[in-house]
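Example record used in the benchmark description.
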Amino acid sequence: MIRKMQHDDIKDVVAIHCKSFPNFFLSFLGADFLTVYYKGCILDRSSICLVTVETDGTISGFVVGSSNPKNFYSRLLTRYWYLFGLAAIWPVIRRPGILTRLARACRYPSEKPSGEDNAGLYSIAVAPHAQKGGRGKILVEHFIDEARRRGCSKIYLTTDRDGNDNVNKFYNNIGFQITRQYCTPEGRWMNEYTYYIQPD
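Model output (structure tokens):
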């Protein structure tokens, strides 16, 4: 079953995120930071937050994005700056250099396509034990349907270009097209994809 993400789902969503992206920046920031982030996503009026629910009621996957990406992260920070700040204290103490990356991450959606006809897909993950059942594809298809319902004509996302063949193949098979490749200041090459939504 696919449904909207709820507050009670956050703990499971954070656990799936950390297992799926163990070496990624948001995972390094920790479970407390991710908890604030996903709670903020749920409350933002533009967000599209969906989960897959198994027959036993457990959460096995999620997808998160926005139907109005411009200033999405800035809106979250403005509303929950003190919670993000508290959650980031220990990671910053452990690695002070991440402050620059945090600031840049806050600007990220502002530099991407924005407006009522664009949606951004920010995060999708399926629990390791549930990855062979097509749940990822179903989540993306429901995300596309919701973006279409809100009047969006395009969806963009970014993912690693190198060492990420299965993920890139996954998006290609769904119909996403590479529209740009770029290198981050950390030397990480990224693929930016666009999906052109067909009207009903």
